[in-house]
Amino acid sequence: MADPARNTLPLPDYDHLPTGGLESRIRSLSVEEVEELLAYERSHADRLPVTQVLASRLEQLKSGAEPSSGDPRALRPEQTAGRAGSSPVSPATSPQPMSPPPHGTPDQPAQPKGNRT
């Protein structure tokens, strides 16, 4: 069920933002907008790193900092998933496939514990 408050947040894709991209995305928000996000976060997921980032930015704004031109596109979910070149692994750097270790040899098959002598 959709939360009506989610549709009115200053960052419409807020619930899907990675924590690392949040700090840049909130730079352009006003005191009221950061307070709104902080209240939403506390009443929903209440993630400690996120509340710390929001509370810190709120304190900065109340101490005289001005909203700046934070990057509203920073680390959007669609940019983080499946980025080209995001992994150094390639077929050339992958290890060779290996077979599992043998469990007995053909000339000495394994025997149940009860038949050992």
Write the layout of secondary structure elements.
Blueprint: H1 19-25, H2 31-43, H3 48-62, H4 77-80
If you had to describe this structure to a student in words, what would you say it looks like?
This protein is mainly α and 117 residues long. It has a domain at 8-64. The protein contains four helices and no strands. Helix 2 (31-43) runs antiparallel to helix 3 (48-62). 9% of the residues are buried.
Q: Briefly, what is this?
A:
The protein is an all-alpha fold and 117 residues long. It contains 4 helices and no strands. It has a domain at 8-64.
The SSE order reads HHHH
Query: In whole angstroms, how far apart are the ends?
Result: 66 Å
Radius of gyration, taken over Cα atoms and rounded to an integer in Å: 26 Å
Number of helices: 4
> Beta fraction of the residues?
under 5%
Q: What fraction, in percent, of the residue positions are helical?
A: 25-40%
Shape estimate: elongated
Please provide the count of β strands.
0
Biggest pleated-sheet summary: none
Helix-strand category: mainly alpha
Summed over residues and divided by their number, the pLDDT gives a mean of 75
Low-confidence stretches: 75-82
